[in-house]
Amino acid sequence: MPSKITLTLPTQNTDGSPVVTGEIVDVQIGFDQTSHATDGADYKFIADDTNFAAETADGVVTIPYAELNESLAVGKWFCAARVKTSDGVTSAWSNEASFSIAPPVPLPPTSFSVA
Questions:
Q1: Which domains, and CATH codes, for the chain?
Q2: What is the pTM of this model?
Q3: From CA 67, how far away is CA 22, in angstroms rounded?
Q4: Can you spell out the DSSP letters for 3-22?
Q5: Phi and psi of 16, rounded to 5°?
Q6: CA distance 81 to 43
Q7: pLDDT for 25-67, tens place per residue?
Q8: Distance (Å, rounded) from C-alpha 11 to C-alpha 5?
Q9: Phi/psi of residue 64, each to 5°?
Q10: Rg (CA), the chain
Q11: d(Cα 96, Cα 34) in Å, to the nearest integer?
């Protein structure tokens, strides 16, 4: 399971104009057990982080995974990020990354003996 998610905020719009300070109001992280790297589809789970400004330094956002409040099942997951503006416009998804969530491992038995 990841401990953090890191991304760099865009500084330009698709038309080449600069992104104005405060224009981006939401960072969205999409999760799915199917890759969407080539199909452009939406992810099954989308976590919103509207408090990303507190997690940003020099345009780089570092989001603690636990703050996303996603309870993902055991298995391999694919994820990507996008941003949303104050006008409600969302960017395309970023490059995709993957990670795995392993099942919990029980502790060994205790008080074992042979008589």
A1: 4-10+24-101 (2.60.40)
A2: 0.88
A3: 22
A4: SEEEEE--SB-TTSPBPPTT
A5: 90, -10
A6: 10
A7: 999 999 999 999 888 788 999 999 999 989 999 999 999 999 8
A8: 19
A9: -60, 130
A10: 19
A11: 11
